[in-house]
Amino acid sequence: MSDQPSNEISESPGDDDVLEFLEGDDALATTEFSHPWRVLIVDDDSDVHKATELAMQGLQIEGRPLQFLHASSAAQARELMSRERDLAVVLLDVVMESEDAGLQLVRCIRHELDQHAVRIVLRTGQPGYAPEIETVRAFDINDYKTKSELTRTRLYTVLTAAIRSYRQIQALESARHGLEMIVQASTELSRLRGLAHFADGVLAQLCHVLGVLPAGLVCAQMNDDAQGPWRVVAAAGPYASLVDCALAAVPIAEVRERVQLCISQRETLEGDNLCLYFGGPSSRGMVALIALPRQLDQVERQLLRAFSANIVTGLENVLLYGQLLDQAYNDQLLRLPNRTRFIELMERNLKDPVGICLALIDIDDFSDINDAFGHHFGDMVLQAVVARMSAELGLNTSMARVAADAFGLMGPEDTVNGEAITAVFVEPFEVDGERLQLSATTGLVRLSESSSVGSELLLDAQIALKRAKQQHRGSSQYFSPAMGTDARERFKLLKGLRAGFEDNRLFVVYQPQVDMASGRALGAEALLRWRTEDGKFVPPDQFIPLAEQSGLIVSIGEFVLRTACHQLKRLEEQGWSDFRMCVNISLAQFRHPGFVDTLNAALRDTEVNPNNLELEITESMAMEDADLVMGLLAAIKRTGATVAIDDFGTGFSSLSQLRQLEVDRLKIDRAFVREAQVSSAGSTIAQMVINLGRSLGLRVIAEGIETEEQRQQLLALGCLEGQGYLFARPMPVDQLERWLRKEPLL
After folding, report:
1. How far is CA 362 from the centre of its chain?
2. Rounded to the nearest 5°, which phi and psi values hold at 433?
């Protein structure tokens, strides 16, 4: 059913006057390059189509011409609009194949075709079918006119208003879409790590935002120096071959000069080659050049400002991440890979280990250099060492700083070997006017002879290094599987010891000390024992040294001290008021800054008589550091406890120093007790220790007494106290209490 227009699009004399200025030569001389506004006429009356085109012929709106498309029904318009997505205005008849065909098409355009930007102007010759107020309220349309209203002037006015509205909506939509692309681009770029990957992402995302094919390049400064070199870090399209090229060497003069101008001005340059400058708080910057065959519009400029702000933030994050990576994997002083990076390099490059050797090089007594000259001088020494090693051993090798004064070196065995490394240190080093003669001890691993990889290889080299240090300074030692077996057994034993201590499988036994003439009990020595989970005993001479080397002895020693004090308190409550409890103190315990506090706490918590507690230290400990030892012994004496020197005679005591020590007892080592029975020399040493004790006013006790002959001989020499299997073996606390109740007499 067709509308019956009361007028074709008519003109009045006033209309001609209004439009006269548009109909001159300038209005008709619209350039063919102008992108027209596309207007769809939907009407079942062909005369309406012709009249509308004729009325608008040669006119421009907002500086652009009009292009008309035609549909004679709502169904035809629906099919056309499903293909065409850039229509600005639809001039839509209401009554066509049905009374509400135009209104149904409005719903289809908005809801089914999802086209919300296109402006819809309803035209009707029969307004009764669709009352204006209700129609405007119910439908998303731009205007509603009767055909009689749409004179040439009025039609132009309606189209202009609709097109301006369309342009604003399109600008908003373009901005929204652009912002979505920027958010998406920022999200994608935030996942990229490393300057090159980030620059690739910037180039791709920037071209996507501008709607052009990737064609351009990205340049960046390669270090923090404001005068540092600029290089091409990403490129696409015709510039792809320029990646990693210095900016100054870019062969395309126009591109090189434009990027340099952008850098010097530190601002974006528009034109055929769009050049964007990204600079943030740091001194480093980045420039992206994009081949753009058109001028930017205002929306694109705004989008690029937002995009650039995100890129600056991303660039700062990438540079910070790069700094963190550098600090995580490289030594900042020597600019060498660190231990972590060196392990990665070994794992990555060891596909063919034949003929390759790993060296762990430790500078001897380097701490003495730091102590004598200061750490700044020590740093210069390390730099001098690295410079010489790089010059003499650097060819085909990988070098890293793996510890404060230790270096890893990996390469062909004809370069990486003990002789070559020793030769590096033959000549003195000149450092800040000082002439230093250095040496280095080296542990070596032939990779073809080891099944280890990564950090295990460094562990093998460390094992070999320890063996070399046991020989002499400046020596070298190759790793062997037997060394690894020993080291891994020790590690396994230490791991078991830690677990055993945590699971309460370590316990204390007590060996009585007696008056050798009467057999009367004088005290007991607390001794540590370890029973494994399967019930086997591990000898103390195996696990005690491991505990001392690992530092675990401090915790274990406190456990023994407290356990012995609790047992001493129990014996005191049973009537043994003058019973002496002897506890061995390790060097690590003795030197620990909290040792005296630990001792005081144990005495206070158990409430034992401190005069009944005796701490045993070895002769080597007593002689190690006179000032430290005398200070600690004085602190121990202030608690009320006594001190004994264990294994006396095995060290190198100074008589004058011994006189200054506040000790109460000397303990003759079991080796001299054994030798005293079989040789005159052994007897002489035992006699000397006994006489020394008497002259210094110290009591003397002998350990390791196993035979009656040894007891009699020691008594004859003047030693009155002793312990050993002859009197009693080490025993658990319940057996000790039963043994004491028997009061054995000889």
Report:
1. 27
2. 85, -5
96 Cα distance to chain centroid: 71
Between helix 455-471 and helix 481-502 the angle, nearest 10°, is: 100
Torsion angles phi and psi, residue 289, rounded to 5:
-115, 125
Structure tokens at 12: 């009045």
Cβ atoms within 10 Å, residue 97: 15
Q: Retrieve residue 333's tokens.
A: 């002083």
Residues 511 and 583: beta-carbon distance below 8 Å = no
The secondary structure of 432-470, three-state, reads: CCEEECCCEEEEEEEHHHCCCCCHHHHHHHHHHHHHHHH
Q: How far is CA 477 from CA 418, 448, 459, 463, in A?
A: 8, 16, 14, 9
Alpha-carbon distance 16 to 33, whole Å? 28
pLDDT digits (tens, 9 = 90+) for 562-606: 999 999 999 999 999 999 999 999 988 988 999 999 999 999 999
Three-state SS at 250: coil
162 φ, ψ to 5°? -65, -45
The answer to whether 622 and 591 have CB atoms below 8 angstroms apart is: no
> Using one digit for the tens of pLDDT, what is the confidence trace for 257-286?
999 999 888 888 887 789 988 876 555 788
CA distance 735 to 454: 52
CA neighbor of 546 nearest in space, from 496, 481, 598, 485: 496
C-beta separation of 147 from 48 below 8 A: yes
